[in-house]
Every structure is written in C-alpha cells, then in structure tokens.
Write a structure and sequence with these properties.
With 204 residues, this protein is an all-beta fold. The protein contains 1 helix and 14 strands, in the order αββββββββββββββ.
C-alpha cells in the first residue's frame, strides 16, 4: 500500500476530529477578522542570519541516574552559542530501539523569533546525536511532532505560519527525509500511528 493511500490527515477544531483516508489539497489561508484571537504561530520576526559562529563545550546533565544530552550541536559536538531550540519531539524505531530521531524548533539567532524545523538522529540509544540541517531551510516551521510506524519509518509533522501542516518521512532513521506532504492541521496538530496490527494498522 502506498504512502499516499495510507496517510490520514488529522485536524482538531472546535473539539471535533476530522480525518480523511487520502491526502487532500490544503485549504486556503483563512481571512482574519477582529473577533479572531491573535495567531501565535506565525513568522513574526524576519529570519536573521546566524551570528558569528562561536562554540563552547556542551554541558551534559546527570540526575538520579538519567542523563540529558544536548542535540543542537555542531559537527564536532560543540554547543553553538547564541542560537536556541525548544519543543523537542522524539520518535523511537520499534524495530531497533537504539535508533532515535528528534525534532525541535530551531532558532538560528536569539535576536529573532523566526524558527525552523531542527532535526537530528542517533543510533546508539541517544548517547550521541548527529545534527542535520533544518528541513526546508528558510521556511518558518513550528510545533514538531515525530512518530515511527511499525516498520521504523519516521514521520515529522511540522506546522507552518498559515495554520497548514506539512509531513516529512524518513526511511533511514532520520539521516535523510522525503516530502513535504501537505496535510490539514492547526495549533496544536498531532500525529499518532496505529501499530496494533488491527484493521487500522499503518494509518496516521
């Protein structure tokens, strides 16, 4: 069964869930009037270039037997100063639990709220991470949600500034990505994949 026929776009609006068994064209951006609440997930600030590259050693944390490892690092594993990241989401490959993929909101410059789709992968259970370039560089993206299907394919849901959502897929543990695939969404979108082996197995 192809990805196109298995993807179900999920949207939550006014407490109702709407789903479709196929990918459908995105809706046009809605017109806003004075009665609408302000949109928080928009580009806001312009994209700024990263400041002069400065690095410092990462500062891993240990607490009660658990370790915290920084993933938004450079190729040498060093902390990149004056950037920022938040709202991480992790997917674990059920066929190889040491293989993990993480996504986050990447801010290249702390002087701007412009954010992009950061991502990294690990094949040693999260002890070390390989930081990739952001998905679709220069495009505002927010609210990453990651999930893996029963075969280990990873899905990355990404909210854009027009309340529409793109989904990316990776068949190699986050080392490369395909997409984007348009999907419905909103703030806050989410994805869940049926891995029960039942009638809905494989659907998002």
């Amino acid at each position: 069964m192809s990805l196109r026929t298995r993807v179900v776009a999920l949207a939550l609006s006014a407490g109702a869930a709407v789903s479709s068994a196929q990918i459908v064209p995105p809706l046009p951006a809605r017109d806003m009037d004075r009665s609408d609440p302000p949109i928080l997930e928009d580009a806001g600030d312009p994209q700024l270039p990263p400041p002069r590259l400065e690095t410092s050693p990462p500062n891993p944390l240990l607490a009660r037997g658990f370790g915290i490892t920084q993933v938004n690092v450079d190729g040498a594993g060093m902390n990149i100063r004056n950037d920022a990241a938040n709202e991480p989401s992790i997917a674990i490959d059920p066929t190889a639990p040491n293989r993990m993929v993480i996504g986050w909101r990447q801010f290249d410059n702390i002087s701007s709220s412009f954010r992009q789709a950061g991502n990294a992968w690990s094949n040693d259970g999260g002890r070390t991470w390989h930081n990739r370039t952001v998905l679709t560089p220069g495009v505002f993206r927010s609210d990453p949600v990651l999930e893996a299907d029963a075969g280990g394919r990873v899905y990355y849901s990404s909210l854009k500034d027009n309340f529409l959502v793109d989904t990316f897929t990776s068949a190699d543990g986050g080392m490369s990505w395909s997409g984007p695939i348009p999907a419905y969404g909103g703030d806050k979108q989410w994805i869940v994949i049926d891995r029960t082996g039942g009638q809905g197995h494989g659907f998002l």
